[in-house]
Specification:
The protein has 533 residues and is of the alpha/beta class. It is built from 18 helices and 25 strands. The strands form six sheets. Strands 12-11-10-9-6-5-4-13 form an eight-stranded parallel beta sheet. It has a six-stranded antiparallel beta sheet with strand order 14-19-20-25-22-23. 50% of the residues are buried. The structure holds (2R,3S,4R,5S)-2-(hydroxymethyl)piperidine-3,4,5-triol.
Amino acid sequence: MKIKGFLPAYFLVAVSIGAAALNAQSSAPHLEKRGSATQLVVDGAPFLMLSGELHNSSSSSLAYMQPIWPKLEAMGLNTVVTPLSWELIEPEEGHYDYSLVDGLLKQARASHQKIVFLWLASWKNGMSSYAPEWVKRDTRRFPRVMAHGDVVEVLSPQGTATEQADGRAFAALMQHIKQVDSSDHTVLMMQLENEVGVLGDTRDRSEAANQAFAGPVPAELTAYLKAHHDTLYPELRELWDANGDKTAGTWTEIFGDTARADEIFMAWLYARYIQQVGASGKAEYDIPMYVNTWLNDYDAMPGGYPSGCPEPWVVDIWRAAGTAIDIYAPDLYSTDFVTWCKRYHRDGNPLYMPEAQGKEIGAANVYYALGEEAGLGFSPFGIESEAGDNDPLGESYHTLAQIAPMILAGQQSSEIHGFVLDQDRRSVDFTMGDYAIHVSRDDSFDGPAKSGFGLIIATGKDEFLGAGRGFRVTFHALQGPQAGISYVEEGTFDNGKWIAGRRLNGDEDEQGVAWRFNPHAQSIEKVVLYRYE
Ligand code: DGJ
């Protein structure tokens, strides 16, 4: 990997931001490929979402929310993932009420927060409880799914009138957001629905669904599979290959007579519907849109988790159904954080997780997501329960906010690495510029730290910036004379300006042997290397 001359990458980003800023002020938040990363660009500059998702019902009341915003701001958030429901936006068909939207925007702006709105409409966790009453009651116009022989409280993704009604409401909402927010850009992205899919059965068993399932797989889906064969998610490709890579036939002929065919069929139905709803909204106001996923492993049975939800092995099915959805997002509560990040950060899909674990675990994982997987942001669920003094996630957010421009520049140039270390993952190795770098848990006087996490950014040929807690770093020159530590400095950034604190030497850098990060509190440190023979 090349270090660009001796100019720090964040300097280059700042220059490009400056040049673009004037005409970009007016453009809506959007995703943009910058260098090797796809980033969220807001007012001409890449933006890192240090966010959290509210509990489901909090944002239905402005009075309830009023005291929460300042707490989130104090915790270091810059973005709040905020539910909005179809039932409150369109309580009567064709009559829209935007007072909540306007109130939430006003409150968010007063606390310097951006918003990602969740459009909780036809589905939320597989069910349809957020649809307006006039939709719930009219089961003829808005048909339901049948699971195991029973009609369930789940709107059918084959309901054309439902899709149109949801799309109309969403389009009206986006038109309103454009009207009230196209200069402030408080709203960064929209989540479409929430964790959709059929629960309790592998697929919809209604008559309409049975008929469609017995019919041919749409040619646009098989054409997509053919055109993208080599980049398909491995499990999907293997399944299609195992059944002969057919481009025409029924769902079971093409995908085999197992629950996988049911899941793919449901993924297609939900994807068609939601891509359409998203497209209706984008026609009014084009900002990034994503869907979120209730995760499960491939060996679990669809229906035990929502069948059709964009699990990694059906993301390609969703992509074949349209282009309105920009991001496929995991709700990442799993302890196997790294594996799931990699399952979603692939084939052009940027990593964003609207839901994750917070507290100590989130405080560490955010470093990995932003530093190693070019994450657009991070967002633990139920964030208002976490807001308080000395929250470990808050410590991470306050630290990361100081170095956000360098992180974004590092994502673009790939001159950044993030890591989480514990008993199972004791060290990581990578190369940056001219150095092989070994990162392990810090070994303090009272034994190795239980855990460590952080990120390292190359800021010059022989200079690195690091942040985090409980790790130690050693450098080996890949070529030429040996590498030694010239000096280590801790400090803070005040509006981008480095304010140096202690010069770390002696025990604090093992007499020049290792770059160390305190196991008890997060810090930001710079190291400068030199060569000797
Ligand atoms: C996942 C859902 O997407 C959220 O809305 C919320 O219900 C959480 N589960 C609760 O843990």
